[in-house]
Amino acid sequence: METVYLCLGGNVGDTHDYLNRAIGLIESRIGTIAQSSGIYQSEPWGLECSQWFLNQVVAVETELEPNAVLERCLQIESELGRTRSGNGYEPRTIDIDIIFFGGQIISQPDLQVPHPLMHRRNFVLRPLCEIAADFVHPVFGKTVSQLWAECDDKSAVTPLRFRQGNQIDNVL
Asked: CA-to-CA distance for 94 and 21, rounded, in angstroms?
C-alpha cells in the first residue's frame, strides 16, 4: 500500500458536484480515501478567466502503480467532461493531479512526481497543509508547511463550507 496525494479542482459547471463525483470514482477505482481536506475557493492560476476554482486535496491508500493511478485519474476526468484543447491552462469541469506518490520521485514524459509546480501553488499547498503538513517533499527535503510558508504565490485561497442546496458560505 502506498499513499498518493491528489489535488482536485475545477471551475466549470457544478464544481461541488464534480468534486464529489470524482472522489467517489477515485475511491472505487484507485483506493481508499484516508483523508480529505476541506474545499477551497481559489483564484485562477496560470490562466485569465473570471470563474474561480474549487480545490480539494485527498490522501488515497492504493495498491496501484503510479502509471495506473495516472491512467485512472485521466479516465475519471474524461468521464466527468474534462476536455483538453492542448492550449495550456484552461477552464475545466475537473482536474486531478498527482502531487505525491509516497516518497517516490518519478520522471517520465507523462508523469512527474512530486508534481513539478506544487511548491509554487497556494491552491495546492493550503489544502495539502491541512492533511499533510509534516509530509517531507522527497526532492526539496522540506515539509509541506515549510513549502507553504516559503511560497511566493499570494493568490486568494479561501476555505468554504457547503449548506443544503450547495449554497456556498465563506467560513472567514
From this structure: 10
